[in-house]
Specification:
The protein has 10 helices and 8 strands. By secondary structure, it is of the alpha/beta class. β5 and β6 form a beta hairpin. The termini are close together.
């Protein structure tokens, strides 16, 4: 059944996916152009960041900042620790997010907001619907192996996308005329994350060694440099393993909850930390939204 998006009452669901979450901004802009009334926002990881900032009214300023940063700016915001808990403490980037958010409690926002995190101790989702907005977002973005997790009382909190990368389950419709617009950042890839070279042996001892100088060499190249084949290492293998699990969870979520409008962003459109591609990612959000409306 075709859905009329003009002037619609929208429950907005913003999925996890690192920098690809910038595409959420393009989708939100398109909804506003169509005079949609967003009646709730649910998000995890970068979806929680964009959704939370949107609910404070600061999204245009955040978008402007994202459009101004370069690849080296992103690298400079990473406070590497190489600790056993994660590679990045996240204090620098979190300080930027906190400045945009300000001091807000979720229950005081004009739009109902839910941030999804994962409690690693209890092995369950945590839904933040009240309390400090910044802390809720901090809890939701603890990407395993990358950002250090957040400890709150008896909870060890990591990325909400581990258990619920597209949190449609957090939505509770009140009226029949309300619709769900879900933005999935885990759509199918166009290519393999680890393309094999011809005659390359399946087992390669270098795949399982971490060479620190190689882990971040991509950040130090010029932005217009030719891309190189990604050689698997411990971090990238772990990352792509989590990606695979999230993709399967997302597939089942979409089949079960069936949002009225599903906006899909390819997983390989950008890497987790490709925030310097903000302009392209916002445009991709707009393009994917148009495609979703056309196919609806």
């Amino acid at each position: 059944m075709s859905v009329n998006i003009e002037n619609a009452k929208v429950h907005l669901v913003l999925g996890s996916g690192g920098a690809r979450g910038i595409a959420h901004i393009g989708v939100i802009n398109e909804l506003e152009k169509r005079n949609c009334k967003i009646v709730s926002v649910s998000g995890c990881s970068m979806g929680a960041v964009v959704g939370g900032i949107y609910c404070t009214g600061k999204l245009p300023l955040f978008a402007e900042w994202l459009l101004s940063i370069t690849k080296r700016d992103v690298f400079s915001l990473m406070d590497f620790t190489f600790s056993t808990a994660g590679l990045i403490k996240g204090k620098k980037i979190l300080h930027v997010i906190e400045e945009f958010i300000g001091t807000h409690n979720i229950e005081d926002l004009k739009i109902p907001f839910t941030a999804i995190a994962t409690d690693l101790y209890k092995r369950e989702e945590v839904h933040y619907t009240k309390g400090n907005l910044y802390k809720a977002i901090r809890a939701s973005i603890g990407i395993p192996s990358l950002f250090t997790p957040m400890i709150e009382h008896d909870k060890l909190l990591i990325d909400g996308g581990i258990l619920n990368p597209l949190p449609i389950s957090a939505i509770k419709k009140k009226d029949e005329d309300e619709i769900i617009v879900a933005v999935n950042l885990c759509d199918k890839r166009k290519k393999s994350p680890f393309p094999m070279k011809k005659n390359e042996p399946f087992m390669n001892k270098d795949y399982f060694g971490i060479h620190i100088q190689n882990l971040f060499s991509d950040w130090l190249k010029k932005e217009d440099a030719e891309p190189e084949l990604e050689e698997p290492n411990v971090i990238s293998i772990l990352t792509h393993t989590i990606d695979l699990m999230q993709d399967k969870v997302t597939e089942q979520t979409i089949k079960h909850y069936k949002p009225e409008i599903l906006v899909n962003i390819r997983r390989d459109f950008a890497k987790t930390m490709d925030f310097h591609l903000a302009g392209e990612l916002m445009e991709e959000g707009v393009s994917a939204f148009h495609k979703a409306i056309k196919n609806n």
